[in-house]
Design goal:
Layout (H helix, E strand, L loop, with lengths): L5 H8 L17 H28 L3 H7 L5 H9 L17 H8 L4 H8 L4 H8 L6 H8 L4 H10 L3 H7 L5 H9 L37
């Protein structure tokens, strides 16, 4: 029995097992009919992803959060990372996600377990986002101050509102980090008695004066 083109069979097999789906009308169907059916399934998938996002944000069931952490939509995976009910071991997957928004979602949390996972991330941009959080514990502050990556310390010197952190970063070995700390208005560096520039300021040499090429009028 002729079942049509193999492409039609593969397309029909994708819909086997879905509610209200039948592979019989798709076998041997025309191209326009297959395109219309595929668009209908895509429309329903978009609606399902919206419901998945809402459930991933509010649910506290570990098995549902674990299933949503493998969702194809990055917004759903980021919602799992932001969910306060997500267990600690589940946050180790989003911090290694292929999309940066999912990795940054772990750094947006302020709980201690999420901070430890974000500090151990391979992507330094995750620690850059973590340094911008206003409410962190002392252990996380210390790890960010001594971070070997310069952009992490720059982010901390720019966004931190703690005077002790800015005072320590103003003595950083990198001049870019020191410049960010000086521009932070938390500590008035101009009146701070313990701040000294590590290098003397050099002014640009004056430009040589150019002689005028206009001819002078002869004296009368």
């Amino acid at each position: 029995m002729d079942c049509g083109h193999p492409t039609d069979i593969r397309f029909a097999a994708l819909h086997v097992g879905k509610a209200g789906a039948s592979c019989r009308p798709l076998v041997g169907a025309r191209r326009n009919d297959r395109t219309a059916t595929k668009c209908a399934w895509q429309t329903r998938d978009v609606a399902d992803e919206g419901g998945a996002y809402e459930e991933a944000t509010t649910t506290d069931a570990p098995h549902r959060l674990r299933a949503f952490s493998q969702h194809r939509d990055k917004k759903v995976r980021a919602a799992v990372a932001l969910n306060p009910a997500a267990p600690t071991e589940l946050l180790r997957e989003p911090v290694r996600d292929k999309h940066h928004l999912v990795r940054y979602a772990v750094a947006s949390r302020a709980d201690r377990d999420a901070c430890r996972i974000a500090l151990a991330a391979d992507d330094p941009d995750v620690r850059v986002i973590l340094a911008q959080h206003p409410d962190l514990d002392d252990e996380t502050w210390e790890a960010l101050i001594t971070d070997p990556t310069r952009p992490v310390r720059e982010s901390l010197a720019t966004s931190s509102r703690r005077p002790d952190v800015i005072s320590r970063l103003s003595h950083d070995a990198d001049q870019h980090v020191r410049a960010c700390a000086v521009l932070n208005d938390v500590v008035p560096m101009r009146t701070s008695p313990d701040w000294r520039p590590t290098r003397p300021l050099r002014c640009a040499p004056p430009l040589p004066r150019r002689r005028s090429t206009a001819r002078r009028r002869p004296a009368r």
